[in-house]
Amino acid sequence: MSWVTARIKVQHTSREMELTAVNLAPTKRGFPAGFSEERLDETRQLLDTRRTGFSLEAPFYTDDHLFNLDMQAIFGQSWVFACSVAEIPEPGDYVTLDYGPYSLIVLRTDDGGVNVLHNVCRHRGARVLTADNGTTGNLVCGYHSWTYSPEGDLIHASAPGEMEFDKACYSLKRAHGKIVAGLVFLCLAEEPPADFDDTARIFEPYVAPHELAKTKVAYQQNIVEEANWKLVMENNRECYHCDGHPELACALFPTWGLTDETIPPHLEDVWDRNQQAQASLEYRCRRYGLPYEVVEELDTRVAGIRISRESLDGQGESFSADGRRLVKKLLGDLPDFRLGRCSMHLQPNSWFHLLGDHVVTFTVLPINAHRTLVRTTWLVADDAVEGVDYDLETLTHTWKQTNLQDKNFVELCQRGAMSPVYEQGPYMKSEYQVEAFINWYVTRMREHVG
């Protein structure tokens, strides 16, 4: 299995991941090493005194120990978006995901499900699979050839003269995995959050008509941003900065997140055009039986979500300069290209744009306290032909440029958070979703530290 992949800077390596979070090993109390009772009290105080409506204190963006706690309390407990089924379409196809100290294998099974295995050999801890993606039968560690089944069972570890031992005791460690409407999620917790199934029931009717199982990867971009993962997520949760996205603003109305009361004078005409386009879109959605209503529970449930179907400017079909379709093939059983974008945010690490002609998925994978991998994947109909049904550069242009602009924005914020004079700043009314994300984060951390 292969697809076009681009890397901006140098993508993190497994070795780097090990070096940047070596202190995550839990103490007897279950917290990362280095978390004394005094440090836990300091963390609780930071959480308890967090100013509502303001950004976090600087240590939440800069401190290595708090990053390790994030990996345990957030990424070690939440359902995390891993990939789409288009990235692992056939049995034996896999992707590997590294975040914080963790390395995971997400492997498609013969029955169409997924196995999620920790990518740590039970012999001496070597990475079993080292490629970002590929196809495999059994999993063979390249160090001493310990061999595991797709379920993670150890099936071969013999050497001349060695005594027999119980192989059943040395299976690869497993995590939870599930597929919902073609999106693949994993969870490292022994007991995953139970409300994810309720969240899945919310978004499945919006996503299912795009039939991701009948798509393929057109392109994948990996960008390492020199910023804390929370700054990456905060940046995505608002459009206050969207004047800095000229390519995106051709199709995405820059009034996103605003209301009648908060529209500035220079955007009043755009606001009126947006309202007309939205009314037309909702009419078509009702005609076709497609859900479009806003569901917003970003901080009122463990598996926080915001989803809606929203109009695009111009022709209202895709992320192009004039809003026209970028791919000639409709996805799934959709009846019309003029369906705007189905926009979904999921806590803690993902957002999605599902259009009539293609889908863009975004995965945020923390590396350390001040580095984050953002993975963007473009999906098109599996029978779409590059150069015939779409031009790859045109298809990816808007979000390639937008991602680079966002990289610059969040890196500016990271440098500011590291300054001795940094202090919390207020969120504007249009940044209410940033506040919701931070409130969700603080709630999860409070639950963890007690």
Automatic annotation (TrEMBL):
InterPro entries, A to Z: Rieske_2Fe-2S, Rieske_2Fe-2S_sf, Ring_hydroxy_dOase_asu_C_dom, Rng_hydr_dOase-A
Annotated ranges, domain Rieske: 80-186
Keywords noted in UniProt: 2Fe-2S, Iron, Iron-sulfur, Metal-binding, Oxidoreductase
Native organism: Brevibacterium sandarakinum
Cofactors required: Fe cation
Protein name: Rieske 2Fe-2S family protein
Record bears the keyword Acyltransferase: no
GO terms, molecular function: 2 iron, 2 sulfur cluster binding; iron ion binding; monooxygenase activity; oxidoreductase activity, acting on paired donors, with incorporation or reduction of molecular oxygen
Entry keyword Transit peptide: no
